[in-house]
Amino acid sequence: MSAQPQSASRYEGGSVSFAVEATGKRPLTYLWRHDGTPLPNSNTNRLVVTNLAAADAGAYTVIVTNDLGTDTSMAATSRCQQITNVATGLVGYWTFDETEGSILYDTSGHGHNGALQNFAASPGNVGW
Hints:
The chain is mostly beta strands and 128 residues long. The protein is built from no helices and 10 strands.
C-alpha cells in the first residue's frame, strides 16, 4: 500500500473518512473492517462513517485483494468525542448583547473578538 488510512478524532453526530492507496495488478478489491468486523458495502478505497456515535470509535483497517494476494492496512483509530455542552468545539461565541461600541466580544474563552462593519441596527431588533 502506498498510503495508509490516518487516525482521526471527530465529534458525535459528525462524520469521518478513511482512505487508502494501493498499487498492483488490477482489479483491486477492498473490504473495510471496524475492530475486526467486516463492514457491509465497503468496497472502495475510501470509507465514510456518518452520524458518528460512541460505538463507531475504534480501529479501522482495510483488506486489499487482487489475483496475486491480499494486504491489510495499518489500523487507523477513530475517536468519537462527546458534545458536553453548547460550547463544545466552538471556535467563537458572540452574544450580540453589547450595549455600545462596535466590538463583539467572544464569550467562548478563545478571545476571537470581532468588529462590526457596515452594520445598521433596526428598532425592535438590536439594542433599541
